[in-house]
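User: Need the bound-state model for ketopantoate:
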Amino acid sequence: MTTHWILGPGAIGRLLAHSLSPFVEVAVIGRRALPSRQVLTTPEGNVHIQHLTSLTAVQLVADTPESPAFVHITTKAMAAEAALSSIASALPPSTPLVLWQNGFYAQPRITETWPGPVLCATTTQGAYLTGDDGVVHAGRGPTFMGDLDNQHTGLSEALAALLSETGFTAAAVGDIRSRLWQKLAVNAAINPLVALHGLRNGELRGEAYSSRVVAVVKEVTAILAKEGVAPPNGGEGDTAWLALVWQVVENTANNKASMLQDVEAKRFTERGAILGPLIESAERHGLGCEVLKGLDQELTLLEARF
Ligand code: KPL
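Assistant: Bound-state model below.
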Protein backbone atom coordinates (compact mmCIF):
# COMPACT_ATOMS: atom_id res chain seq x y z
CA MET A 1 0.00 0.00 0.00
CA THR A 2 1.37 3.44 -0.82
CA THR A 3 1.74 5.93 1.98
CA HIS A 4 0.77 9.59 2.03
CA TRP A 5 2.17 11.85 4.72
CA ILE A 6 0.13 14.92 5.58
CA LEU A 7 2.27 17.60 7.12
CA GLY A 8 0.09 20.12 8.96
CA PRO A 9 -2.99 18.79 10.76
CA GLY A 10 -5.25 21.80 10.08
CA ALA A 11 -8.73 21.58 8.57
CA ILE A 12 -7.69 20.76 4.99
CA GLY A 13 -4.97 18.37 6.23
CA ARG A 14 -7.44 16.42 8.34
CA LEU A 15 -10.10 16.42 5.62
CA LEU A 16 -7.48 14.95 3.27
CA ALA A 17 -6.45 12.37 5.87
CA HIS A 18 -10.05 11.23 6.43
CA SER A 19 -10.67 11.07 2.67
CA LEU A 20 -7.46 9.22 1.72
CA SER A 21 -7.35 6.85 4.66
CA PRO A 22 -9.70 4.13 3.26
CA PHE A 23 -7.58 4.00 0.07
CA VAL A 24 -3.92 4.48 1.08
CA GLU A 25 -1.87 4.44 4.25
CA VAL A 26 -1.94 7.90 5.85
CA ALA A 27 0.16 9.56 8.55
CA VAL A 28 -0.72 13.01 9.86
CA ILE A 29 2.35 14.90 11.06
CA GLY A 30 2.30 17.94 13.30
CA ARG A 31 4.17 19.68 16.07
CA ARG A 32 2.16 17.63 18.56
CA ALA A 33 0.39 14.30 18.16
CA LEU A 34 -3.40 14.26 17.84
CA PRO A 35 -5.75 11.66 19.34
CA SER A 36 -5.88 8.68 16.96
CA ARG A 37 -9.72 8.64 17.07
CA GLN A 38 -10.77 11.38 14.64
CA VAL A 39 -14.29 12.53 13.76
CA LEU A 40 -15.36 13.89 10.37
CA THR A 41 -18.74 15.60 9.91
CA THR A 42 -19.78 15.64 6.25
CA PRO A 43 -21.59 18.53 4.51
CA GLU A 44 -24.78 16.46 4.88
CA GLY A 45 -24.24 16.24 8.65
CA ASN A 46 -23.18 12.57 8.73
CA VAL A 47 -20.55 11.66 11.30
CA HIS A 48 -17.66 9.32 10.42
CA ILE A 49 -15.14 8.10 12.95
CA GLN A 50 -11.74 6.82 11.85
CA HIS A 51 -8.49 5.97 13.57
CA LEU A 52 -5.70 7.97 11.92
CA THR A 53 -1.97 7.63 12.53
CA SER A 54 -0.69 10.86 14.02
CA LEU A 55 2.98 11.57 14.67
CA THR A 56 5.13 14.52 15.60
CA ALA A 57 7.86 15.53 13.18
CA VAL A 58 10.42 14.56 15.84
CA GLN A 59 8.92 11.04 16.22
CA LEU A 60 8.79 10.59 12.47
CA VAL A 61 12.42 11.52 11.91
CA ALA A 62 13.56 9.30 14.82
CA ASP A 63 11.55 6.29 13.53
CA THR A 64 13.11 6.33 10.01
CA PRO A 65 9.90 5.02 8.42
CA GLU A 66 9.43 3.69 4.90
CA SER A 67 9.48 6.48 2.30
CA PRO A 68 6.07 7.92 1.39
CA ALA A 69 4.63 8.11 -2.14
CA PHE A 70 3.54 11.74 -1.55
CA VAL A 71 4.01 14.36 1.14
CA HIS A 72 1.11 16.82 1.30
CA ILE A 73 2.07 20.07 2.99
CA THR A 74 -1.10 21.59 4.43
CA THR A 75 0.36 24.17 6.81
CA LYS A 76 -0.26 27.91 6.51
CA ALA A 77 1.74 29.46 3.67
CA MET A 78 4.40 31.09 5.80
CA ALA A 79 5.04 27.87 7.78
CA ALA A 80 5.46 25.49 4.82
CA GLU A 81 9.22 25.73 4.38
CA ALA A 82 9.99 25.27 8.08
CA ALA A 83 7.60 22.30 8.24
CA LEU A 84 9.31 20.68 5.26
CA SER A 85 12.75 21.25 6.85
CA SER A 86 11.55 19.53 10.03
CA ILE A 87 11.06 16.20 8.18
CA ALA A 88 13.43 16.59 5.21
CA SER A 89 16.06 14.28 6.72
CA ALA A 90 13.50 11.43 6.62
CA LEU A 91 12.70 11.97 2.93
CA PRO A 92 14.50 10.81 -0.21
CA PRO A 93 15.07 13.99 -2.27
CA SER A 94 12.98 12.51 -5.11
CA THR A 95 9.81 12.43 -2.95
CA PRO A 96 6.88 14.22 -4.62
CA LEU A 97 5.48 17.09 -2.56
CA VAL A 98 1.98 18.54 -2.86
CA LEU A 99 1.60 22.14 -1.68
CA TRP A 100 -1.89 23.14 -0.55
CA GLN A 101 -1.10 26.72 0.53
CA ASN A 102 -2.98 29.90 -0.30
CA GLY A 103 -1.18 32.72 -2.06
CA PHE A 104 1.95 32.51 -4.18
CA TYR A 105 4.76 32.48 -1.64
CA ALA A 106 5.60 28.90 -0.66
CA GLN A 107 4.98 27.45 -4.14
CA PRO A 108 7.77 29.16 -6.16
CA ARG A 109 10.23 28.96 -3.27
CA ILE A 110 9.78 25.23 -2.65
CA THR A 111 9.61 24.44 -6.38
CA GLU A 112 13.00 26.12 -6.76
CA THR A 113 14.69 24.37 -3.85
CA TRP A 114 13.18 20.85 -3.60
CA PRO A 115 14.96 18.41 -5.95
CA GLY A 116 11.90 16.16 -6.49
CA PRO A 117 8.54 16.94 -8.13
CA VAL A 118 6.52 19.72 -6.50
CA LEU A 119 2.80 19.77 -7.27
CA CYS A 120 0.61 22.70 -6.23
CA ALA A 121 -3.06 22.30 -5.36
CA THR A 122 -5.77 24.90 -5.04
CA THR A 123 -9.10 23.96 -3.53
CA THR A 124 -12.41 25.51 -2.64
CA GLN A 125 -13.32 22.66 -0.30
CA GLY A 126 -14.54 24.33 2.89
CA ALA A 127 -13.55 22.81 6.24
CA TYR A 128 -13.02 23.88 9.83
CA LEU A 129 -11.74 22.25 13.00
CA THR A 130 -13.84 21.60 16.07
CA GLY A 131 -10.95 20.61 18.33
CA ASP A 132 -8.07 18.14 18.39
CA ASP A 133 -10.28 15.27 17.26
CA GLY A 134 -12.85 16.86 14.94
CA VAL A 135 -13.15 18.43 11.51
CA VAL A 136 -16.30 19.62 9.75
CA HIS A 137 -16.41 19.41 5.96
CA ALA A 138 -18.57 22.51 5.53
CA GLY A 139 -18.88 22.67 1.74
CA ARG A 140 -17.72 20.83 -1.34
CA GLY A 141 -15.72 22.54 -4.07
CA PRO A 142 -13.33 21.61 -6.86
CA THR A 143 -9.61 20.98 -6.43
CA PHE A 144 -7.06 21.61 -9.19
CA MET A 145 -3.45 20.51 -9.28
CA GLY A 146 -0.36 20.78 -11.41
CA ASP A 147 3.26 21.87 -11.18
CA LEU A 148 4.54 25.33 -12.00
CA ASP A 149 6.71 24.14 -14.90
CA ASN A 150 4.32 21.50 -16.31
CA GLN A 151 6.96 18.80 -15.96
CA HIS A 152 4.93 16.32 -13.90
CA THR A 153 1.57 16.06 -15.63
CA GLY A 154 1.38 12.26 -15.17
CA LEU A 155 1.92 12.58 -11.43
CA SER A 156 -0.77 15.29 -11.14
CA GLU A 157 -3.17 13.11 -13.13
CA ALA A 158 -2.49 10.09 -10.91
CA LEU A 159 -3.06 12.10 -7.75
CA ALA A 160 -6.20 13.77 -9.14
CA ALA A 161 -7.54 10.30 -10.02
CA LEU A 162 -6.87 9.03 -6.50
CA LEU A 163 -8.48 12.11 -4.93
CA SER A 164 -11.51 11.73 -7.20
CA GLU A 165 -11.91 8.16 -5.92
CA THR A 166 -11.96 9.51 -2.36
CA GLY A 167 -14.84 11.88 -3.13
CA PHE A 168 -12.92 15.06 -4.00
CA THR A 169 -13.76 16.69 -7.34
CA ALA A 170 -10.16 16.88 -8.50
CA ALA A 171 -8.50 17.56 -11.85
CA ALA A 172 -4.96 17.94 -13.13
CA VAL A 173 -4.50 21.23 -15.02
CA GLY A 174 -1.78 22.82 -17.15
CA ASP A 175 -2.35 26.35 -15.80
CA ILE A 176 -1.94 25.96 -12.05
CA ARG A 177 0.18 29.13 -11.86
CA SER A 178 -2.70 31.27 -13.22
CA ARG A 179 -5.17 29.49 -10.96
CA LEU A 180 -3.05 30.20 -7.88
CA TRP A 181 -2.78 33.89 -8.85
CA GLN A 182 -6.52 34.00 -9.52
CA LYS A 183 -7.32 32.70 -6.02
CA LEU A 184 -4.74 35.09 -4.60
CA ALA A 185 -6.49 38.01 -6.36
CA VAL A 186 -9.82 37.09 -4.77
CA ASN A 187 -8.19 36.61 -1.37
CA ALA A 188 -6.43 40.00 -1.65
CA ALA A 189 -9.74 41.76 -2.34
CA ILE A 190 -11.63 40.08 0.51
CA ASN A 191 -9.39 38.83 3.30
CA PRO A 192 -7.46 41.92 4.48
CA LEU A 193 -10.57 44.15 4.59
CA VAL A 194 -12.74 41.65 6.46
CA ALA A 195 -9.88 40.79 8.84
CA LEU A 196 -9.15 44.43 9.66
CA HIS A 197 -12.78 45.39 10.17
CA GLY A 198 -14.18 42.17 11.67
CA LEU A 199 -16.69 41.58 8.85
CA ARG A 200 -18.45 38.59 7.35
CA ASN A 201 -17.58 38.46 3.64
CA GLY A 202 -21.05 39.67 2.57
CA GLU A 203 -20.65 42.92 4.52
CA LEU A 204 -18.11 44.08 1.93
CA ARG A 205 -21.07 44.85 -0.35
CA GLY A 206 -22.11 47.70 1.96
CA GLU A 207 -21.46 51.36 1.14
CA ALA A 208 -18.65 51.65 3.68
CA TYR A 209 -16.46 48.99 2.05
CA SER A 210 -17.45 48.41 -1.58
CA SER A 211 -15.32 51.28 -2.91
CA ARG A 212 -12.34 49.88 -1.01
CA VAL A 213 -12.85 46.51 -2.72
CA VAL A 214 -12.93 48.31 -6.08
CA ALA A 215 -9.68 50.12 -5.25
CA VAL A 216 -7.90 46.86 -4.37
CA VAL A 217 -9.16 45.16 -7.54
CA LYS A 218 -7.93 48.07 -9.69
CA GLU A 219 -4.36 47.61 -8.42
CA VAL A 220 -4.55 43.82 -8.59
CA THR A 221 -5.79 43.94 -12.22
CA ALA A 222 -2.76 45.96 -13.35
CA ILE A 223 -0.37 43.63 -11.52
CA LEU A 224 -1.91 40.43 -12.89
CA ALA A 225 -1.80 41.81 -16.43
CA LYS A 226 1.97 42.24 -15.99
CA GLU A 227 2.19 38.70 -14.60
CA GLY A 228 0.48 37.40 -17.74
CA VAL A 229 -2.57 36.14 -15.83
CA ALA A 230 -5.66 36.51 -18.03
CA PRO A 231 -8.81 38.05 -16.51
CA PRO A 232 -11.31 35.38 -15.41
CA ASN A 233 -14.20 33.92 -17.43
CA GLY A 234 -12.96 35.32 -20.75
CA GLY A 235 -13.73 38.87 -19.57
CA GLU A 236 -11.65 42.02 -19.68
CA GLY A 237 -9.68 44.09 -17.18
CA ASP A 238 -10.97 45.11 -13.79
CA THR A 239 -14.61 44.53 -14.79
CA ALA A 240 -13.90 40.79 -15.06
CA TRP A 241 -11.84 40.64 -11.86
CA LEU A 242 -14.42 42.66 -9.96
CA ALA A 243 -17.25 40.43 -11.19
CA LEU A 244 -15.35 37.37 -9.90
CA VAL A 245 -14.73 39.00 -6.53
CA TRP A 246 -18.40 39.99 -6.09
CA GLN A 247 -19.45 36.50 -7.10
CA VAL A 248 -17.21 34.97 -4.40
CA VAL A 249 -18.45 37.55 -1.87
CA GLU A 250 -22.01 36.53 -2.74
CA ASN A 251 -21.28 32.79 -2.55
CA THR A 252 -19.46 33.13 0.78
CA ALA A 253 -21.53 35.98 2.25
CA ASN A 254 -21.87 34.33 5.66
CA ASN A 255 -18.25 33.11 5.84
CA LYS A 256 -15.70 34.32 8.27
CA ALA A 257 -12.69 34.47 5.93
CA SER A 258 -9.57 32.57 6.96
CA MET A 259 -7.69 35.82 7.67
CA LEU A 260 -10.41 37.03 10.02
CA GLN A 261 -10.29 33.67 11.81
CA ASP A 262 -6.52 34.13 12.19
CA VAL A 263 -6.92 37.64 13.59
CA GLU A 264 -9.63 36.54 16.03
CA ALA A 265 -7.34 33.73 17.25
CA LYS A 266 -4.42 36.20 17.42
CA ARG A 267 -2.46 34.13 14.88
CA PHE A 268 -0.18 35.68 12.27
CA THR A 269 -2.10 36.09 9.03
CA GLU A 270 -1.20 35.01 5.49
CA ARG A 271 -0.65 38.64 4.42
CA GLY A 272 2.92 37.75 3.39
CA ALA A 273 1.65 35.07 0.98
CA ILE A 274 -1.31 37.07 -0.38
CA LEU A 275 -0.35 40.76 -0.37
CA GLY A 276 3.40 40.05 -0.41
CA PRO A 277 3.65 38.58 -3.95
CA LEU A 278 1.37 41.33 -5.33
CA ILE A 279 3.42 44.13 -3.79
CA GLU A 280 6.67 42.48 -4.84
CA SER A 281 5.36 42.10 -8.41
CA ALA A 282 4.10 45.72 -8.52
CA GLU A 283 7.52 46.94 -7.45
CA ARG A 284 9.28 44.74 -9.99
CA HIS A 285 7.07 46.12 -12.77
CA GLY A 286 7.19 49.75 -11.60
CA LEU A 287 3.46 49.87 -10.75
CA GLY A 288 1.93 51.83 -7.87
CA CYS A 289 0.19 49.76 -5.20
CA GLU A 290 -0.57 52.23 -2.40
CA VAL A 291 -3.84 50.51 -1.48
CA LEU A 292 -2.23 47.08 -1.13
CA LYS A 293 0.70 48.53 0.82
CA GLY A 294 -1.74 50.34 3.11
CA LEU A 295 -3.60 47.10 3.89
CA ASP A 296 -0.32 45.28 4.50
CA GLN A 297 0.80 48.04 6.86
CA GLU A 298 -2.49 47.96 8.79
CA LEU A 299 -2.25 44.16 9.15
CA THR A 300 1.38 44.46 10.28
CA LEU A 301 0.34 46.87 13.02
CA LEU A 302 -2.53 44.61 14.05
CA GLU A 303 -0.28 41.53 14.22
CA ALA A 304 2.27 43.45 16.31
CA ARG A 305 -0.36 43.58 19.09
CA PHE A 306 -0.75 39.74 19.24
O1 KPL B 1 -10.66 31.73 0.47
C1 KPL B 1 -11.29 32.42 1.24
C2 KPL B 1 -10.74 32.56 2.59
O2 KPL B 1 -11.48 32.73 3.55
O3 KPL B 1 -9.50 32.49 2.72
C3 KPL B 1 -12.53 33.16 0.79
C4 KPL B 1 -12.75 32.86 -0.68
C5 KPL B 1 -12.33 34.62 0.99
C6 KPL B 1 -13.76 32.67 1.47
O4 KPL B 1 -13.88 33.07 2.77
